[in-house]
Amino acid sequence: xKHIKTLNTKNLQNTVKKGGCGECQTSCQxxxxxxxxVGNQSCESTK
Amino acid sequence: xxxxxxxRNNGYNIVLDINSGCIHVVDELVYEVIGLMDQGxxxxxxxxxxxxxxxxxxxxxxxxxxxxxxxxxxxxxEDIYENAIEQFSENHETVVKALCLHIAHDCNLACxxxxxxxxxxxxxxxxMTYETGKQALDFLIANSGSRRNLEVDFFGGEPLMxxxxxxDLVAYGRQQxxxxxxxxxxxxxxxxxxxxxxxxxxxxxxMGNVVLSVDGRKEVHDFMRPFPKGAGSYDxxxxxxxxxxxxxxxxxxxxxxxxxxxxxxxxxxxxxxxDLGFKQISxxxxxxxxxxxxxxxxxxxxxxxxxxxxxSREMIQREKEGKGFNFFHFMIDLTGGPCVxxxxxxxxxxxxxxxxxxxxxxxxxxxxxxxxxxLMGNVWDGIKTPEIQKDFRHCNVYTKEECKNxxxxxxxxxxxxANSYNMHNTIHSTYEIGCELQRxxxxxxxxxxxxxxxxx
Lengths: 47, 456
Fold this sequence. Notes:
The structure holds two protein chains of two kinds. Chain A has one helix at residues 15-18, and one strand at 4-6. Chain A is largely without helices or strands. By secondary structure, chain B is α/β, with parallel strands linked by helices. Chain B has a domain at 4-80. Helix content of chain B is 42%, strand content 16%. In chain B, strand 14 (377-378) and strand 15 form a beta hairpin. Chains A and B meet through strand 1 and helix 1 of A and strand 3, helix 3, strand 6, strand 7 and strand 9 of B. Strand 1 (4-6) of chain A pairs antiparallel with strand 3 of chain B.
């Protein structure tokens, strides 16, 4: 594409069917104890 | 409700397709085209509106490229998750998979911003016994259903004040995990005062993550994190933290600080930590009652935003020079990252994540400890207030009006329940200043990715 550069093609919608195993880390166990930062956690099943 | 979030930062025009999570870096023309599409304009109307500034063919090209992304569900994607998350919350068995063990309600520092009131949590000083801790691990195993990975954070107060119990509980956990086909992931959060070589060695063997509390520059750290008699703690803890981080190969740890109104120029604290050699850094805004002199105020936001921008630019520069470091709140995984359920259900407080007091009481998370109306039961008798658990389970971005139209809802998952409760007396709201900061951090995190992609 000439006008658009897409950084990622992963679509969140695809995780509706497969997601939810719950094995990933709880965000407050990593480094935030006073906020709720979830978007930066990694997925356990795609490691 | 808008389906895209457009913003400019550091010379980049960025379009986030909110519901797919796709991120597009676009030129000026497409930036305008998407803005007009977002207002509901038809292609012809967009042509007419832009024809005085751009060649007709260029506009047609831009529209075609946008259409291609729409067809691939990468632009103006609809939100299909609301029913999915409700069904998910309803149908999934609630299991407990993580405990914040308050191994010591006591502390050897007197940090000014401590939500735990120097370790006392509106209560009294007490250390957790081995028996109570053991029962907590048994409770976790018994309530974890089919989850294999179980997390236990040794928290306080200051957990190193009860080190022998920490070690004994790790040994007990290692023994039990084999019997029950579980995998314990232990972590510890410490101020470093009592930290010694033996502890480091043990933690390097047994702890999947260690969180080391340090606020940044010496004067900043010493002002907010003094000993009870007033002396600063920086000189004592800093060399130990440097050694600890090195011994963990600069991985699987965080130096974690808090910034307040007294150091709104906190990017200097982050960079100070980076200059000391730390590679894993987290510095969070304080959450405090309005009346506290160190609380972040709304009027501080412009300066904080500038600090986040300055920090982003510096991080890009350092990355390019091979001197990069991780900043927890700018981390964003564009290729993997959590599934939508994780993103919508949040930190799991009150459901899969619970805090345990030294005497075995259960609370929704470490920040609710001492709030009697949130007492959920104890590690011997289990959860006695399923209504609290249910309330937390049904607290997500779709139950909060403020979140429904927020572009960052898949990154913060509705924010911190304790922050909401402390500000508005309900877990079903948001902490607005926290939201503003979160949105800014997401924008910066994405911009950094755009800049680094530009480089490659």
